[in-house]
Specification:
The protein is of the alpha/beta class and 627 residues long. Helix content is 41%, strand content 20%.
Amino acid sequence: MPLLRLDDISLAYGHHPLLDHVSLAIEAGERVCLIGRNGEGKSSLLRIVAGAVKPDGGTRSLQPGARIATLDQEVDCADTANVYEVVAGGLAALGAALAEYDQLTAGLGEDANGEILARLGAVQQILDSQDGWRFQQRVHAVITELALDPHARMGELSGGWRRRVMLARALVTEPDLLLLDEPTNHLDIGAILWLENYLANFTGGVLFVSHDRAFLARLATRIIELDRGILSSWPGTYNDYVRRKAEALAAEETRDALFDKRLSEEERWIRQGIKARRTRNEGRVRALEAMRREHRARRARVGQAQLRLDTADASGRIVFETDHLTLTYEHRVLVSDFSVTVQRGDRIALVGPNGVGKTTLLRALLGDIAPASGSVRQGTRLEVAYFDQQREQLDPEATVMDSVGEGRLTIAIGGRQEHVAGYLRRFLFAPERLRSPVAMLSGGERNRLLLARLFAKPANLLILDEPTNDLDADTLELLEETLMEFKGTILIVSHDRAFIDQVATSTWLFDGRGGVHEYVGGYSDLPSAAPPAAATAAPKTPAAKTQATPPGAPARKRSYKEQREIDELPARIEALEAERATLEAASADSRFYGQDQTKIASHFERVAAIESELQECYARWEALESP
């Protein structure tokens, strides 16, 4: 028996059917990815699976005794609650007892009174009777694996850390079926990799919504697509789905074209004169009426957003130049002694854990904050467009139309006036949505609106802080194409590995200790042994430069010591690379992050040291081999 089965499920809002008699079965061990465009009803389907929403029709069956845990798109919990309370809260009444036990023991001292001790004894009895100690270990293990501070208040945490807490809350229940709605949103790459490893070894069923192509390509064993109310199943990998879906769409377009041609011919026939009426075939008339009904019922595929940047005049050749830049926050060094030159046309991705200083560095480059030491020099003729990850630029009370037009009906795009409604239509906003307040929009719609607002302004420098969250795959790919065609300079903060690979020409990797290391290429070009939380690697330029020898000059004779050194270097390099491979394999194990944090830090420090030593060895070898 499947873990869960949906049969003939229907759900509509007004006259718009989100789910049109769909069916679904999920087995244990399956990792099913639900995809579809924004607004198709994916979150609604997840809520039906979870039992939180009752459909208009159809049945939902859950295997007896099966437990379901969910991770929703929005983080909803009290700011005053601490992390332990929220995570343990996933266990309902037992979680409340665990949280109370944690609170009582944390405040227990020599002055504990009889009332506190009596209550502690009562809570202990509850935990004894409900296998609470095993779940207490589970709560601590998940909190440790996700590197959470159990006593931190939710109101003190950034969006990424709050997301981790809610993920821990879902995982702690040891569910049979796990429902994840955009689980990678706001997570850094280290957390995403941990989650990938966890889910790859999860024995229950998983149904998840994600537009992170690298994430779903690794995990999905089946793709289900919600398109115009119809749910279709595509067994196999995501790459299999992409290929077969393209073939299916081409066949659908051909079939619809043939149908429309035949309908047009029948419409011309029915409109013929008196001669045609006298010889009219009543069966043919009934067939035409059926074709008309089928044509009216056909729901055209939602159009694709049309993104086009309004590029300003070119900036100067130098966009930013930093000299020994150091940035701090509350006595913590975020960026240390960073010198770099950003030139016109560079497309740079900033990669690293949440809270490591990526956004702080962007603000320092823009002059919004002053450095602790060092300097930032901005280039000339900069026209900046800034995409804010927290969407602070959108007034929740303003309408969709006013968010772009700012009270005007027309805006200047590419040197000509364009009506705001027409401009927003290119970003898939229907006329009836233009007067809706921003607060009523979904996450994907808000992102599209912010892109529309951003792209309406001439710019030669784009600052994009987490631009891919909540965007559907089609819009995401179109955004990639738009950015690759942009002639200006782009700085991107993103944890979407596929997006970085497509767009970035170079990457700044933050190691969490103040170092920012520059590499050519995207995420896939980073050293495989360098973890996001503590990485160091080869700089963009060679670590050591050798003096060129003039043509015809005699080769320099090596000393005995140099010859012995060059003979020993290959073995030394081989040993370092072997140690690096062993450390990399250890950090990829899902149990790695369950150990003591000092051991984890020491592990990554050794990885960094090996990388540095390898570069020194290669540079020395190159110098010794030079004539």
